[in-house]
Amino acid sequence: MGQGMLGLSQRLPPSNTEAEQALLGALLANNKAYERVSEFLADEHFADPIHGRIFKAIQRRVEAGQLADVVTLRAEFEHSGLLDEVGGPAYLTQLLTAMVGIINAGEYGRVIHDCFLRRQLVDLGEVVVNRAFGAEPELDGKAQLEAAEQALFDLATEGSSEGGLISFDRALTAAVELAERAFSTPGGVSGLPTGLRDVDTKLGGLHPSDLLILAGRPAMGKTALAVKIGFGAAQAVIREAQEKDPNAVVRGGVAIFSLEMSADQLATRILSEQSRVSGDRIRRGDIAQRDFDKFVEVSRELSTLPLFIDDTPAITISALRTRCRRLMRTKGLNLIIVDYLQLMRPAAGTRPENRVQEISQITQGLKAIAKELSVPVIALSQLSRQVEQREDKRPQLADLRESGSIEQDADVVMFVYRDEYYLQQKMPKELAFDNAEKFSEATDKWQKDMEQAHNKAELIIAKQRHGPTGTIRLFFEGEFTRFGDLDQTHDENDYA
User: Fold this and answer.
1) Which part of the chain is the SF4 helicase domain (predicted)?
2) By the 8 A CB rule, do 223 and 380 touch?
3) Coil, strand, or helix at residue 27?
4) What one-character-per-residue DSSP string does 412-477 give?
5) Which domains are assigned to the chain?
6) CA distance readout (Å), 325 to 47, 318, 320, 370, 460
7) Predicted TM-score of the model (pTM)
8) Chain segment 400-421, per-residue pLDDT in tens
9) Residue 373 in 3-state DSSP?
């Protein structure tokens, strides 16, 4: 084992001197070659620091609109002594003999960049090994894992040379495909269906790369609504796959990161909702044989759904990203749900100055994950107590905790609100009235208000970057924490 480690430490770091020389030769011969590498290559990516200095000098002159060739750079390096190790300024002429054509410059640049990434991975691996052997005793094993995940996350983010400008005709093609999908889908839904008819109508489904914030005060039903949407999306994934091929293995699914509830608590909630047996009765074991038989039947159906639950408490943004990428690679991924973002932690090793900055890092990270994986991300959020001080308790954008960053990064901000919850607390008390008549009038009014609000909830779309805002009325059964469509021309119970 010791010999193996010794052999590993004697290996040379990944580099390609020939590629570096060839690229520099091409740049000196024809400055247009710089355009092929300027977007992703920097001087620190060169293994040979002298080559890095030469590249930086070329970069500085080309970006200033000046000529960078053997003659102009010779004057720059003549008296600095920077090239003495390789024979002085004459080395620039030698590079010309190693040059490649301008067409190959991009390929050589990518080879150099790839070697740089490999060297960074070697360094990162060395740090991980040294920490594991106790180089930093203040970091326990879990903290070391998080630091390693964050370092990989940073390297992947900074090391990515993908992206860039695309022609407008390609963008138009994508837009037309989206419109065609909406046109051919019942209800005009171009995104991933939520399982709630009116939500799909208002949002057009859940769209790739979008960050959706679902906020509300405690007991409003945020988790229940998010689970309902995740459930509906998972059903849509199966339905779409089977329409194409009934025998196909379903690829894709919904990842739920439950930071507040454990996986079995979340599963109990879904089981309660689908079987229409109170979650409280399930926990107390107060169920009849027919209820248990229903559980078995419902759980058999649920087990086929592509739902994946991670109940890691206080998960970091880098750990969440790593797990989502892994799931995308192995099973496929269509939707990410985070419950809830104030319980997340920023990247390991970072120490934001204040809570607002911390939340800003988290929301920016979630938006970056949505864009990178091209899936919608729904993040639940708590609201500040200032809602309780108002007569009308319906939330507003300003009620978002640390609202600036959340509101700015989100594509959609939704609030879930139940009037019934607040009305229950306003039940008239006889002691507060002068006589029985006034008490009776107040009680009658309260009962009428309660009847109107019973089993109803509102989903307030306060911000939507790509569509209208407004309020969606939903059906809600508190006993089963169950949301559904509300058809106001029929009895709600028929449409739950």
Assistant:
1) 185-490
2) yes
3) helix
4) EEEEEE-HHHHHHTT---GGGSSSHHHHHHHHHHHHHHHHHHTTEEEEEEEEETTS--EEEEEEEE
5) 17-158 (1.10.860.10), 191-417+455-485 (3.40.50.300)
6) 30, 11, 9, 11, 32
7) 0.65
8) 765 567 777 888 889 888 877 7
9) helix
